[in-house]
Amino acid sequence: MINILVTGANGQLGSELKRISEDNIIQFEKTINFVFTDIDTLNMSDSTLIHNFFQEHTFDYVINCAAYTNVDLAETDKENAYNVNATCVKNIAEAINNQKLSTEQAGAKFIHISTDYVFDGSSNIPYTEEMLTNPKSVYGSSKLDGEKFALENDNSIVIRTSWLYSSYGKNFAKTIHKLCQERESLNVIFDQIGTPTYAYDLALVILQIVKQSINENNFIPGVYHFSNEGVCSWYDFAKIIANNTNSECEINPIESKDYPTPVKRPFYSVLNKSKIKSTYNIKIPHWQDSLNEFFKIVS
Ligand SMILES: NC(=O)c1ccc[n+]([C@@H]2O[C@H](COP(=O)([O-])OP(=O)(O)OC[C@H]3O[C@@H](n4cnc5c(N)ncnc54)[C@H](OP(=O)(O)O)[C@@H]3O)[C@@H](O)[C@H]2O)c1
Hints:
Blueprint: E1 2-7, H1 12-22, E2 32-36, H2 47-56, E3 61-64, H3 71-74, H4 78-103, E4 109-115, H5 138-151, E5 156-161, E6 164-165, H6 172-182, E7 185-189, E8 193-194, E9 197-198, H7 199-216, E10 222-225, E11 232-233, H8 234-245, E12 250-254, H9 274-280, H10 287-298
Parallel strand pairs: 1-2, 1-3, 3-4, 4-5, 5-10, 6-9, 7-12
Antiparallel strand pairs: 8-11
Helix pairs in contact: 1-7, 2-4, 4-5, 6-8
This protein binds NADP nicotinamide-adenine-dinucleotide phosphate (NAP).
NADP nicotinamide-adenine-dinucleotide phosphate binds next to helix 1, helix 4 and strand 4.
């Protein structure tokens, strides 16, 4: 029996992991026992609670999907953002280490999720894992601290992703989809470039890594980048969503300067995914193909 803890399980990514596990989309050769928790059942900012929880339960894998993801609010709610994005990760990494010491066993393998916001967006080539980080927001800095805590554990994988969306939770794709049916026109930024990531695809890859780790002992710690394939602007993304809603809603391109937000978004967020593709031998769908899969659920 392999025990897998998924924290922050009610969010977009956690919900996709739950869907894949319930539908048996990835077939494991061993029996898998998933434990899904969120803030109401396992508040990870409570270090004593986490310590005790790990003394009482043993896990082979911990997948941390919990995060403080409100990028703008984080600027004024700094303490909470750091608490969730950094301290919670520290608590998990320490709990895994303590368990390892007390049981003298290998301890859980840790998969933690991070973000393109650890970069400043000034690149004009896709970001590799080795490129210099330079977060420009509280959210980005808190996530970078979280990465460092996760990597203090020598059995950790950190996966940075970008522009995450899903049929669960709140996200750009769902918002545009809804607004297209309510409005005659929408203004959307065209000068920020990145790649959407369907949370389902990321969840699949996480479980493929777990499967390869179980079957082939292929679990290589370190940082990896993952998004869907291709590149677009928010405007392009919105335009394809609008076309899929069969609405008459017109999508107008605007510049970032005409849509001020508390946090300036990175102009360039494209991630280079060569490392994850070669290490785990995975194929990644193009973002438009994954968006079509999303529409099968949302439309
Ligand atoms: N969303 C994006 O566009 C995006 C882009 C790049 C990277 N990422 C990263 O991808 C990962 C998954 O993101 P997501 O969009 O699935 O996030 P999400 O939908 O915001 O889900 C995060 C979950 O964590 C829970 N949580 C918050 N504080 C917690 C605590 N102290 N203990 C336990 N659970 C707690 C949240 O509960 P509440 O809702 O009650 O707070 C929520 O259910 C995150 O690491 C995020 O930083 C996201």
